[in-house]
Amino acid sequence: MGALLHSLFRPGRSCVSLGGGGPCPSWRGPRARRGHQAGTMPVLILPVEHSQDTRVGPPAWREATKALTQKAHQLTDRCGQEAVTTWKPKDSVRDPHTARHLCRAVHILPWRFRVETLKGGSTMEKPPPGEGVTLWKGKMKPPAWHARLPLPMHRDARALQTAEVVHAHARGARLTAARLSRAQHQINGQLRLLQRQREATDHRLSEVRKALLINQQSVKLRGYRPKSEKIPDKADSMLTWEKEELKSMKRKMEKDMEKSEALLKTLASCRDTLVFCCKERLQAVELMNQPLDKVLEQAGRHSWVNLSRVPTPRTQGLKTPPPDPVGTYTPECATALYEAKRLLMESKDTLLDMAKNEEDIREQQQQISDRVCASLAQKTRETLELKDRLNMTLGLMRGTIHRCTKFTQEMHIACGLVKGPLSESHLETREKLDRPLVRTYQRHVGTQLPEATRLAQGTDKLQRRISHVEENLEELLSMRKNLTWSLSCKKVGQDVDYNVVRLRLRQRHPHVCYEQARRLVNDWDPRTPPRAESSIARK
């Protein structure tokens, strides 16, 4: 019996269970174990033989000591587990299906370097991705340790964390300011390009307006032609067509100027917004001595806005962060950059359209002016041809008039000779009807001489012929006058058309400005009668 009790209470064997605080089931009998498992009060069944207990202390006293020891063991285990759990990471929970001696190997397996095979067949060890401290010598990268309680260096850690947050905010503000500054420079570049294109378009518009003044001058100058030369012709139709086309060009270019002016104002407003946002972002980086271009280079992005740059084959750098109202990339900055990007695209298309329209209008204006000058030059050649024909006709008519005049004079002389002298005393003897020979002949009946009758008939016939020739001469003189007038009108018309062509070629020269052409038009008075026509009318 004593040996049995000694075996039950030998040193090194616990008599208190870890679960319920009662006696350990390991030293109970089989029936006691079954009773404990069934939830009943465990009972110590002693052997039948009488046991001699040599201990002096009472059993209650020993049981109290054993209960106290069991509570101390439980408290120690709980506090140790809590202490270890406090300093252990949250995710470091042992897998119940893994053997205890393999837990550490399984736990540190994700920390070890990974072997990757390159294209050439060689291998290279790389640390696993994620946060942590890379141990190059041990070929391991443990994850970051997240403690649940403040460490002894908590104040320094918080100070470093605050400094890191401030520096991160400063870096983000500097990067945002660099982006805004780069966008501002690009907007300024587009403003300069738009200003140059507006100057070119305005110059072309002034050329179109000058062409309208030249057209007005041409019409006014052609209005100084004689009335016979003002019959509508193809040159007038060409001038009217030129006027309509120039007005259409003028309206088109004025629309381009209005559109570019609105775009210019929008670009200027966007630039001011970018400048304001950039200055606002730069308030947090006043002590950072680093160029903004260097910041973009470090970020791996030369521009977030420029669309004309050819994309590089390498991978782009930092992506655009999402807008944060309390961060460095605020919604105002995002809106300003998006508006800058949209305006850059719109201004690029507008510049292409304006340049194309300006080039097309320049070529079209040159072609129209050449066609009008060609039609006026052809009209001048036709007028010259008609003038030469009129000149030849006048020459032929002049010879006919001279012959008719000479013939009329000779007939007047012949008529005077046939009529004879005015006084009877001037008659010759052979012309007198009472001469002796005639009187002797007229003594017999029926011997009357027809001399007087024949003289009278010849004189009358000469008079009629002279009257007819004089009428023809008057018609010739009248026709010559008309031909002379027409020749003079043709000459004036030729001079006017030639002067119009010369004026157009001189006025469309680039050195002639719009004001000079306008003064030339204002100096003319359309109510002034043409000098050539008035001088011809006086003649």
From TrEMBL:
It is found in: Cytoplasm. GO terms for cellular component: cilium; cytoplasm. Residues 311-330 are annotated as: Disordered. Keywords: Coiled coil, Cytoplasm. Pfam families: Tektin. InterPro entries: Tektin-like (IPR048256), TEKTL1 (IPR038949). PANTHER family: COILED-COIL DOMAIN-CONTAINING PROTEIN 105 (PTHR35081). This is Tektin-like protein 1.
